[in-house]
Amino acid sequence: REELIENILTFAHAALDGASTALVAAPIPGLDKAAVSLAFLIEMVQKTRENDQIAKDLARRLRSLSSIIAESAKKMEATLPRSLTDLEDVASELIFTPFIPRCIRVSRNSKLLREMQERLCEILSNFELQNSIAVGALVSSVVGTLQAVHQTVTVSNYQSNISKTDQVLDHLKPVNANHLSYHHRETEGAHEETRKELLAELHNWAYGTSPDLERFPVYVLIGEAGTGKSAIAMNVARGLEEDGILGCSFFFRSGESSLSQSRDFFSTIAHDLARSQKEFLEHIVTTTRSHHRRHGGKRAQMHHQVEQLLEGPLRSVRADHPPVVLVVDAIDECSDPESVIRKMMQLLIGLPQLAKFPLRILVTARPEKHVHSFFQSHQHIDQAHVKHLHDISPSDTTADITCYLNARISQAVTESQLPPEFQQAHPDAARELAKRADGLFIYAKVAVEFLCQSPRLADEHLALLLSDDETSQFSETNVQLQLDKLYGTVLTKAFREMQCEEGDIPVVLGTMALLRESMSAQTMADLLQLRAARILSVVDHLRSIIIQADDDAHTGEGGTLRPLHSTFPQYLTNRERCKDNRFYI
């Protein structure tokens, strides 16, 4: 292909060199200069072309253009002599006619003169028309070629700039933690008919149109395990991305080394900001070059990443820039030491203070002690608005879960994952399962998956899910396995963090499991003859599965304690389900 392009360009160049000499005498001003210019253009392309396809396209255009010029020259050489010969014949008839007959035939000569005049006008007119057409084609082709060259140069420069930008931003070594990542393929967004009020509140906060929330640059959504925090974060990220104001989404995920550490957190934010917001691109590319030179490609500490990568760009973007929102999901799943996580959160909520424009940050987390206490501290009371999912009316949450279940069951029937008669046979299935869910969207999700696992056994599986027999309700079901995994994960983490006080954990859990009654920390302390502080210390490490209400806060007893879900006490007292002796009651 390279040889073909070279041959085409060489041929066109030689043809134009030959034509330019002949065109000097052509009656069209500038035609010879066009040929010379075009030959120079071909020579330039021969020397500078970099893209084979572009060179091939230009070669074809230039060859076509050179053909037009050469053809114009040939037409002028062939047409003009023939036309002038015709005129010469008419004139000869006048010149060589004897004088006397000419005098006698004045009338006929006048006719010949008129004819010659008309022929001359016709020849000139045709010649002008033909060459006008040729010149028009020439000009059109020249313009087209120049436009193609301009577009080629523009595209080439653009592609070159993109390539260079990509190379610079790659120095940031971002991780694939955004809401579109393959790692989060199983995370569903909240159903469009659920969490409407909360999603509307988040939308208004993001755009700064909520009078009550406008002053808070940070919105912290706290919820126990399985309550649908990630689904809400997913919905928010998708909506803001469509609106063009999502700066970055970072979904932490325990068990994935790249998604459960803080080391790549701020460099990924910088990378994604540059990609999503064009006003940041040039600034972040500049700071990335400097950062890379300074650290030689090595990963810097978090505060250096913020100072060197983000601070300058945030300060540089104009004040009237539209809002930009960062979405950080499951920050509690960061596996770094708590001191490192607190440093990360401190740097994170400090970002809006660097910006002239409205920069907002949505954070979701379980009520882990180190996360909960950080955002609830007096130091951050003016920066962060903290919303607890368990503060939402239980009836509203149950209604949302019912709506979700109805939609999922209908979808399953449509996709033949459930028998077509299932809904008619069990019209109250969604409502009854929603009651069993007890506020846990994860329960509803896994319950539907369990029903769809064996369509022929769907009726039997539904009966199992709705059974009041604790020994059969969750026996060998995916629901049980999913919830047990959730409980085991939280308890294992708590035991690891409380090694010096691990004896208190089974005492507190055993009391909740055996009495199965809600009580305040002080009441439990009196019952067990322990200090309330020891009870609350255990609760602080188990806030993902133990809910502490605010109903008795005014009494100083710390609020009523209750398990996340009714299945938690069952898990603790069932040897088949709770296989770890540290937890088994």
How many strands appear in the DSSP assignment?
8
Secondary-structure-derived class = alpha/beta
For the record, the CATH class of the largest domain is Alpha Beta
Percentage of residues in helical conformation: 55-70%
Mean pLDDT: 79
How many structural domains in the coordinates? Answer: 4
What is the overall shape? globular
How many DSSP helices? Answer: 23
The biggest sheet, with number of strands, parallel, antiparallel or mixed sense and barrel status, is: 5 strands, parallel
Query: pLDDT below 50 for ≥5 consecutive residues: which ranges?
Result: 25-30, 102-106
Q: What is the assigned CATH homologous superfamily of the largest domain?
A: P-loop containing nucleotide triphosphate hydrolases
Rounded radius of gyration (Å): 41 Å
Q: How far apart lie the N and C ends?
A: 78 Å
CATH-assigned fold name of the largest domain? Rossmann fold
Strand content bin:
5-15%
Second rung of CATH, namely the architecture of the largest domain:
3-Layer(aba) Sandwich
Going across the major beta sheet, what is the strand order?
2-3-4-1-5
Protein name: NACHT domain-containing protein
InterPro entries: NACHT_NTPase, NPHP3-like_N, P-loop_NTPase
Keywords: Repeat
Domain NACHT: 217-367
